[in-house]
Structures are given as C-alpha cells and as structure tokens.
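Morning run. Coffee first, then this:
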Amino acid sequence: MVVVLLRDDRWTQCDLNEALLAAVVIKRTDLAELLLEKGAQAEVVDFEEICETVDPEFMEKMLRGGADPMKENGFARGLDYLSARPLLRFYRSLREEFPSLHLQASLALAEAASKKRVRWTALLAWAGADPHLKVPDDLSVDWDFSEEDSFRTAARDACWSGKAEVVKVLQLKKDPDRLRELLEWAAVNPSVGVFKELLSKLGGEDLNTGTPASCRALEKLVECGPFGYECVAEDEGKIGCMRWLIESGARWSPEWERIGDIRRYLLRHSYSSVGATIRVLYENPNALDRGVLVELCRTPAIRRAIEASDPRLLRRISSL
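And here it is:
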C-alpha cells in the first residue's frame, strides 16, 4: 500500500519527512527505507529514535543519509536509554569513519559510570569509548565548552561514584599523571575500594610530586575534599583512604603558606573528624615533617577540637 501511495507525485517534502518520522517511531524500518528512496530527509529524525529500532543496518543507512548522532546528543541518549549490544556493534564498525560516534559513546560511558552501571560501563569501555575524553556535564548539554567551562570524563565520574567495580571495568592504563589526578578526584567521595584500585596501578614512587615531595590526594583528604568543601563521605572512608595512601608511600608536605587555610577547612567539620584526621598524621611520622603538624595544631580553636575528641592526642602533640 505504501509503495502504491508513493507513486503519487503530490507528496511534498514536508509530507515525506513527517511520514519518515512516523515510520521510525513505530519501528517500521521497511517503510522508512521506502520513504528515503522517495526523497525523505534522514536528518529530520532524532538519532535516539533511530537507535530505538535497534537495527544496525538501518541506523547506518540513516547515518549515511544525513542523520546527525551529535544533535542533542542523540546517539549518547540512545546508548544510555537502551543499553543494547547491537548499538555497540554499530559504533565499533563505523567509529573510524564517523568520529562523532566516538564522542557520543564516550559521553554515554561517563553517564554509565556516574550512574554506577557496572555492566554497561564495562561494555562501552570494551567497545572503545574513551574514559579520559572530556565530555559535557550532562546529556542535555552541547559540546561547545572550553577548558574553563565545566566538563567531565568517565574516569572522573567513576572515581566520584565511590564504587570500585566501576573504576575497575574501565581498564585504566598505568599513566602516573592521570592516576594522580584521579586520586584527587576520588578524594571528593573517599572509598577505600576505589583508592585500592587506583593504587594497584600507581607505584609508591609516583604518588608524590613537587619539592618537598607531597601527595596531592592526601592533601585533599586532610582538607576533607577539594577547595575546602565539606566531605560527602563518612569519616571512616576518608581515614581508611588516608591510611592506604600513607602505607603506599604518600607524603603530606603542604606549602607552609597554606597551613592556615587547611586549618580553617578542618574546623568546618566535627571535632571527631578533626581528631581522627590529626591522629593519622601523628601516627605516621615518616609521612610528614613534624614541624608542619605542630604548626597545623598551633591555634586554640583546633586544639579545642582535638581535645574534645582525643585529649591524649593533644597532650602528645603538645610535647613535640
């Protein structure tokens, strides 16, 4: 019936396009192909709708016909919503020819990692999505961002998730610079499992940078997160991560000029959190300069916090 109707010459471009949209929505790819042959324009169809056909051959025809996988992040939304293996086959077969598919798959990877979807994260990583590619903060955000704008990567989102399995399935390479950065991001939501996974790929000799040598991730944990924001995890996770870092060879040697800021950040938290943090530093003298610890604990405010949670610790620090 559709073949007969398409023989009529009174079809307008708008009619053809609307019919194509309807055919894709009801997943009748055979009808959609007839309309494409008649002159319907593939670019009018949202790529997420095309993905919902779960038909790689039809998806390729639409892609080659002008459908844009980048428009409103249609392919990434399709990957995220459907989590279907045929979409991965479509991506793997065409990613070299159509680089936009790789961008979209990497965005979907970040979305899967942030949602702690271990299996789908693993499959996207296996398919070739890049865990280190900078992608928009959200599926609804476009790609017009600069280094100064807000962006994310799948690796960062995995570390933020606090779920070690998500980090593990990304199969991160042994790249010291990237792993150190990821440890800092992991300090936002400290998870011993995530830290163990990252530290399994990062040797103790690579943990510390600068002069004097210091571990930025350990500094972030002492401050209860980057930029002084309040830590979102339980103290137990934070203290456990601090211990793992120190046992792996991390040192705490912040710049002297920053000690006042670190002290203020610490005092935003409960007395018990302050005491537990200071105790870890005190119990690991090889990981720091005792003079820095004495300076950190110098003011009456922080001494009151330590005394309220651990009077014995305060006496020991006072004797240094």
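Residues 41-141+154-171 form one domain. Good start to the day.
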